[in-house]
């Protein structure tokens, strides 16, 4: 029976039944909603489990990647340390090898110089000249390789300061102007009184290499070296009238051992290292270098560096050598201390050929014995920096000065071109000559240091 079929006198009963139906519908609706929520919660629970599994998988994967990256980083650090150690070892090896190589080379050049001073025939003199040029090429190659190694290893620390550009260019011009003249080239220098911020030694090497290349490749015409100020900078141009550089070659001219075509038949063949050294030195100094060229017309190398900001040091403060003076060594008393037998014998022969009286020794103790019976003090001492038994040449110089007077001149020779050695020698009040020794330089320096040698007393 439905609610409509119930008699009217049962209205109260109908009302209650309707209320129960509404309550039942509401209850069913609540149950249905609860069921839906439980279904959604279950789905969310399932989703959470799935996501948690994925998160764990991704976390594990990420952890493994981080561990792998950490291992790679450790490997990279170890490889970097090995490379740095190899670089330091290479530099130390080349420094030691250069000493061992330059010692016999030094002896050979001294012997050739002595031989050239002897009365020889034309053919013998020509052969001596060829040997001298060959030795010079070997010396240049060794020095260039050492320079490149030190620059790559970062052991060269530029001493940048305010310097006079003319002081630097003066030596470069003096070196290459005669060479250009012999080739029939005009050598033009145009500079004002400019001061720049640079390392005088490195800047001189850069300009020497650039001018050397210009003179070597110019067949006719000439070489121009020009310096001028532009916008707070100094521009130094080295221009030649050589064969020019093709666009393809411009990217390669700074590579080691690359030599361009068309050198104008110089007796001195380029090694292909000059521009490689120039590039490294300009980078070390923070200078810029640009190249422009036209095939068949010539090339221009432009160096840009900062104008001086501080006080310019005078040339004599940089330790530059005084101009050579005429000298005689006749009757002079010279001490030679050199642990390399060949170099010592060659040096003694050279000095004796200049009519000097020489006392030579292998080291300090041997020198003390050799001078024990000598009543006259030496005029000057020529001492090798590295001696046997851990003894240094500066110790010998100190003993000579303590024995014969603090003003005893001493020249220290070494194949070590490091700034530390140079500073140590200067601090001791001694002069420094790098090996291989140039005889004319030694003779002029002795005259400058010891007036009694110049007078032949």
From TrEMBL:
Gene3D superfamilies listed in its UniProt record: 1.10.287.130, 3.40.50.2300, Histidine kinase-like ATPase, C-terminal domain
Record bears the keyword Coiled coil: yes
Record's keyword annotation contains Transferase: yes
UniProt keyword annotations, A-Z: Coiled coil, Kinase, Phosphoprotein, Transferase
Domain Response regulatory positions: 332-446
Every Signal transduction histidine kinase dimerisation/phosphoacceptor domain range: 89-154
Protein name per the record: histidine kinase
Organism placement in taxonomy: Bacteria, Pseudomonadati, Pseudomonadota, Alphaproteobacteria, Hyphomicrobiales
